[in-house]
């Protein structure tokens, strides 16, 4: 059994809503205040929580009240990273916080055409965003959450005032963050900002996947209130429980993978090999082709790319650049994976890395690395299969010794 949480976002998500849901679920406000002091910004804000009603439903509203003399203080990403690294935080909360800020800065930098380190404006640098992000990571760690899932997001609409003037909703940084994970979105008809960059960054960084809730034995619910009164209760719902027998596996057993596909019937086959190499360099996990019959009985190929969600854009760019395709389909799926380690073994011809796959304590597969075997085979003028067999024998001898 593992502790699982699910973010149900009927009216979107903001950093303070997530923080409110965590406090409502049992995270002590005093714990957050004490831990956040180690960031060194405690003179710039006050953190408080209160019960409020949204459309007749009670929820927890957490507010970060800024001291007037610090209300316009902004910081660069390196400043925030140093503060987090020097703070007294649990390791998981520290690492999660750094990841969230990195992703947020990358998104904001992409929108404005600058490097993440040069991002310097409200969405990343203001102390309320720092408190929301680090506080949320502290809360998840305090609750012992092993795996976080999240619903699809409502898009909202209209315009919102930002540091650079009026922006359309969803604001550009939120759209960029959604793009990195191929997040499912929909319109619920509410024309205002429903997802903030801070809220999007937390969810996109920490959620294992987006969509329906995972199977779990529900133990408690945390309700975090938003600031606005909306046509439906403006509440973020955090479901917490133990994963069931048929629950989705933990992050070390599953991962989200993107699948890109396109069919081609008018490209020199030699270009496919070059495209393969470029895709692997861009971060593709696997690339393969299948022979297909296309319109007018023309023979063609179906080119499929597997890659992490954050490499979709890079792989898509290569497919458009290196092939004659006019369109690419893509989707994300969960895939079960085995735990894998690389172990080096010595053979008479040199060292070969061996990939060892396990499930729990059970050994399921042993496979010498192809390129290592091929290199040694060429250098020693030996058949590849001989070097491959020697590597397997060496691994078994070493691991069967008492």
UniProtKB/TrEMBL annotation:
The keyword Lyase applies. Gene3D superfamilies: mk0293 like domain, Transcriptional regulatory protein pf0864 domain like. Keywords: Lyase, Nickel. This is Putative nickel insertion protein. HAMAP family: LarC. InterPro entries: Ni_insertion. NCBIfam families: nickel pincer cofactor biosynthesis protein LarC. GO terms for molecular function: lyase activity; nickel cation binding. Belongs to the LarC family. The gene is larC.
């Amino acid at each position: 059994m593992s502790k699982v949480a699910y973010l149900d976002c009927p009216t979107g998500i903001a950093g303070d809503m997530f923080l409110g849901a965590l406090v409502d679920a049992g995270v002590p406000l005093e714990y957050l205040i004490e831990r956040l002091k180690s960031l060194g910004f405690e003179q710039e804000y006050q953190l408080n929580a209160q019960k409020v009603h949204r459309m007749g439903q009670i929820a927890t509203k957490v507010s970060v009240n800024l001291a007037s003399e610090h209300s316009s203080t902004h910081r660069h990403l390196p400043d925030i990273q140093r503060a987090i690294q020097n703070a007294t935080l649990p390791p998981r909360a520290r690492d999660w916080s750094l990841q969230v800020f990195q992703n947020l800065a990358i998104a904001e930098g992409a929108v404005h055409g600058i490097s993440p380190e040069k991002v310097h404006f409200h969405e990343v640098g203001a102390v309320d965003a720092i408190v929301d992000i680090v506080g949320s990571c502290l809360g998840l760690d305090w609750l012992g959450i092993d795996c976080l899932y999240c619903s699809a997001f409502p898009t909202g609409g209209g315009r919102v005032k930002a540091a650079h003037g009026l922006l359309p909703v969803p604001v550009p940084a939120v759209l960029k963050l959604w793009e990195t994970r191929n997040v499912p979105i929909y319109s619920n008809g509410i024309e205002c900002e429903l997802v903030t960059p801070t809220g999007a960054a937390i969810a996109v960084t920490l959620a294992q996947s987006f969509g329906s809730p995972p199977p779990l034995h529900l133990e408690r619910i945390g309700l975090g209130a938003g600031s606005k009164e909306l046509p439906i209760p403006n509440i973020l719902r955090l479901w917490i429980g133990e994963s069931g027998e048929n629950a989705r596996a933990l992050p070390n057993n599953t991962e989200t993978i993107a699948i890109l596909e396109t069919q081609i019937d008018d490209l020199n086959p030699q270009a496919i090999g070059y495209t393969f190499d470029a895709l692997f360099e861009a971060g593709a996990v696997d690339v393969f082709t299948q022979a297909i019959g296309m319109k007018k009985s023309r023979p063609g190929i179906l080119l499929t790319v597997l890659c992490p969600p954050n490499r979709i854009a890079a792989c898509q760019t290569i497919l458009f650049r290196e092939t004659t395709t006019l369109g690419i389909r893509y989707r994300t799926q969960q895939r079960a994976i085995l735990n894998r380690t690389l172990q080096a073994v010595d053979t008479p011809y040199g060292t070969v890395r061996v990939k060892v796959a396990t499930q729990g304590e059970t050994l399921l597969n042993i496979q010498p690395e192809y390129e290592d075997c091929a290199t040694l085979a060429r250098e020693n003028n030996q058949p590849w299969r001989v070097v491959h067999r020697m590597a397997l024998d060496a691994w078994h001898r070493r691991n069967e010794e008492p």
